[in-house]
Protein: ABC transporter [Isoptericola variabilis 225]
Amino acid sequence: MFALILKRIGAAALIMVILTGVLFWLQQFATGDPIRTRLGAGASQEVVDATREQLGLNDPLPVQYGRFLAGVVQGDLGVSLRTGRPVQTDLAMFIPATAELTITAFGIALIMAVLFAVASAMRWPGGRVFRALLTVGGAIPSFLVAIAGIIVFYKYLGWLPATGRSSVSGAPDGPTGLLTLDALVHGRFDVLSNAWTHLLLPATVLALAPALAIGRVLRSSILTTLTSDHIRTARVVGLNEMSIVTRHVVRNSVGPALSMAGLQLGLMFAAVLVVESVFAWPGLGQYVALSIPVDDFPAIAGVVLLLATGYVVINTVVDILQAAADPRIAL
Structure:
């Protein structure tokens, strides 16, 4: 088991080193000039050349990559060409909004996945309708679902807002940066209610595809468990169906679904950027959207590294937990 953990951690570290190399290579072949973007179009060529020399951009590429990799290890992601602030400072400002949206969406995804799996496996009334809606929603690209959601629930029905985190003035901005939690800490239930209405639509859009993937795996596992001997025995001794499902079926079927949940949580890091752009959510997606038109490569690379690190860490932890739960995996 210890050897497996070391192997997984080593593989994760190797992946991150390769990723930094790819990002560094892309930066070298980018069409824009970061120094010209940083200094402005009116800067003279002499000032541009002096700045390039000062920043070490005339050094050999291996030297520049070593410096870039050392900075990443130390948490130094460079300076944003757009904001003029360290990228890590910008990320700290935008991460809470993205984290709040992702956590909420993941919770919604788990709820919908369980409903999808249990309702379809147990053939509950209305299960087919829910399964059809979730299948259609999960199969359509998230940006199309987001646009459709805005048109239906904001423009025509007027039930939910379309953009932003809150429309209440004077909303608290600390201590966690998670607006719903901060509102609860400060006793601002008006902000809490308003923040939830803003969260519901983008979080549901983000949750559809993961819910479908997790639900399918859980449904397959439930159907397999339902044919096992101990379930037949539970029915023979007279246990009611709800007790069998909650105490025996779901509990013994959740393992494969947890593995899929870990994978889907990592994949949500990519989808969240698209969803945030559609809903003008002030998170990492909006930060990237504003950085791309001005060729702010340090900001773009910082977001990619952050999300990739989260993805790799989550999948590494899932692999280790799977091996801990089933020793056959370690072999």
Remarks:
- The radius of gyration is 24 Å.
- The CA atoms of residues 79 and 87 lie 5 Å apart.
- Residues 2-73 form one domain.
